[in-house]
């Protein structure tokens, strides 16, 4: 009987993407916001998550903290996918909330816009289960002095 082939080990850019996904999963905040990060290509990040009544404000829709967290994370990881040595820090974030989110699946889509040295700009949007945009945001991210390799969760294969 032949053994199945083991999955290929990610290298180069793909290894960095998988290590960032692992870093995201290891962040303690994500125990409060169940979600999954996917980095399909350089400069792009997607976070899938569910809105449920635990994050509602008094009027019965998602509180703005959920919007901000997912928009910031998606934009951040889109930008950090371009940086293999350092952790980026959010220095500014502007958001526009356009539709209330209620219970159901949501995708945060982040895209790098500009910057390749010290400061990066990325945008993100939240798409609800009906395919409607519920929010969008733009962030500015700066290289920190924190090496990615020193962070718990950032594991290169």
Automatic annotation (TrEMBL):
Taxonomic superkingdom: Bacteria
InterPro entries: HotDog_dom_sf (IPR029069), Thioestr_dom (IPR006683)
SUPFAM superfamilies: Thioesterase/thiol ester dehydrase-isomerase
GO function terms (MF aspect): thiolester hydrolase activity
Name recorded for this polypeptide: Thioesterase
Species of provenance: Sphingomonas hengshuiensis
Domain Thioesterase, first and last residues per copy: 60-134
Signal sequence region: none
A Pfam family hit: 4HBT
């Amino acid at each position: 009987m032949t053994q199945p082939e083991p999955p290929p080990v990610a290298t180069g850019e793909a290894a960095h993407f998988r290590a960032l996904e692992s870093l995201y999963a290891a962040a303690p905040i994500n125990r409060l916001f169940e979600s999954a990060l996917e980095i399909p290509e350089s400069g792009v990040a997607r976070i899938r998550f569910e809105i449920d009544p635990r994050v509602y404000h008094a009027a019965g829709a998602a509180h703005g903290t959920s919007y901000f967290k997912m928009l910031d994370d998606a934009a951040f990881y889109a930008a950090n996918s371009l940086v293999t040595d350092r952790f980026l820090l959010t220095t500014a974030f502007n958001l526009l909330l356009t539709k209330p989110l209620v219970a159901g699946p949501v995708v945060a889509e982040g895209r790098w816009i500009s910057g390749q040295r010290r400061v990066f700009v990325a945008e993100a949007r939240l798409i609800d289960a009906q395919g409607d945009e519920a929010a969008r945001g733009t962030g500015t991210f700066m290289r920190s002095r924190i090496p990615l390799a020193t962070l718990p969760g950032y594991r290169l294969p």
